[in-house]
Amino acid sequence: MPRSNRPRRSNGPADDDAQGIERMMTGWRTVERRRGHDWNVQPITANQATKDYVCPGCSLPITAGTAHLVAWRADGLMGDAADLAARRHWHNHCWRIGVS
Q: What is the pLDDT of residues 58-98, one digit of tens each?
């Protein structure tokens, strides 16, 4: 019997959240040192950017379809899950000029 090329359905929102966290933790990212702290930095392509965010560097919107990056602490005291939950979406330029 030939195999199906149709995508499989997820098991619901909890499954999607777990996959999202796994993707963030294992995706293409770097660790940068800024103002005495280590930060995980992961670029988001324009195709991956499906929601609007507010940049913490300039307080201006990052609209869906705009390439940007996501940063979260790599050396937090509360553990990886808490650091990941506190991640922020930044304009590339705002991140380069400094972390607040």
A: 999 999 999 999 998 888 777 777 877 888 999 999 999 87
DSSP state of 2: P
Any idea which residue has 């294992």 for tokens? 26
Phi, psi for residue 10 in degrees, rounded to 5: -80, 170
Global pTM value:
0.66
pLDDT at 83: 78
Distance CA 95, CA 30 (A): 13
Q: What CA dihedral angle connects 93, 82, 20 and 44, to 10 degrees?
A: 10
DSSP 16: H
Distance from chain centroid for Cα 82: 14
